[in-house]
Design brief:
The protein is an alpha/beta fold. It has helices at 14-26, 49-62, 82-95, 111-116, 130-148, and strands at residues 2-8, 32-38, 69-79, 99-103, 119-122. Helices cover 43% and strands 22% of the residues. A 5-stranded parallel sheet has the order 2-1-4-3-5.
Length: 155
C-alpha cells in the first residue's frame, strides 16, 4: 500500500527532511510513504488569500491519483489517538487503495479539498508549523504500523 503526504510548500529545514526520511525508511516495503510537494502561492502584501487557497487546492487535488482515498489534515477534523490511527491504517490496508493525506498552506485547505476528503484528521488543537506536520505524520504512521505488528516501538 502507498500513503502519500501531499503538502503545500517546497522548502523545509534539513532536520525535517532527515526526520521524514528516517521514519519513511523504517516502514516495510508493503507500506510505502511518499511525499509530494506542491508550490505555495505567493503571499505578497495585498494578495487575495482566498484565491491563493483555491489555487493551492487545485494543485493538491491534481496530485491525487484517481480512486485514491483522501484524508484532509485540518484543525476542524477529528482528533485521532495513535490507536485510532492504527485502526484506520489497518482498514486502509484492507481496502487496498492509495491514501493521500492533504496538508494545506498557511491559510489552510480549500473547500474543494475538504469536500473531496473522505475523512478529516486533526493532529492537534495547537497550530503546528507545516514542516512539523510532516514529521508528526511520518512518526505516527510508523508508530501505528508498529502497533499493528506488536513491535515494541509503540510503547
Amino acid at each position: 500500500m502507498r500513503v502519500a503526504l501531499i503538502a503545500v510548500g517546497e522548502r523545509v529545514p534539513g532536520w525535517v527532511a532527515e526526520a521524514w526520511s528516517t521514519y519513511a525508511a523504517r516502514l516495510p516495503r508493503d507500506l510505502v510513504l511518499g511525499l509530494v510537494e506542491v508550490p505555495a502561492g505567493r503571499r505578497a502584501k495585498g494578495a487575495d488569500a482566498a484565491r491563493l487557497v483555491d489555487d493551492e487546492g487545485r494543485r493538491l487535488l491534481a496530485a491525487v491519483p484517481p480512486g485514491a482515498r483522501v484524508v484532509a489534515l485540518d484543525r476542524t477534523g477529528d482528533a485521532w489517538s495513535t490507536e485510532d490511527l492504527a485502526g484506520h491504517l489497518a482498514a486502509w490496508r484492507r481496502d487496498g487503495r492509495e491514501v493521500c493525506l492533504l496538508v494545506g498552506g498557511p491559510d489552510g485547505l480549500s473547500a474543494a479539498c475538504l469536500a473531496r476528503a473522505e475523512a478529516r484528521w486533526s493532529l492537534s488543537r495547537l497550530t503546528l508549523p507545516h514542516a512539523m506536520v510532516r514529521v508528526v505524520v511520518a512518526e505516527q504512521l510508523y508508530r501505528a504500523w508498529s502497533m499493528l505488528q506488536n513491535h515494541p516501538y509503540h510503547r
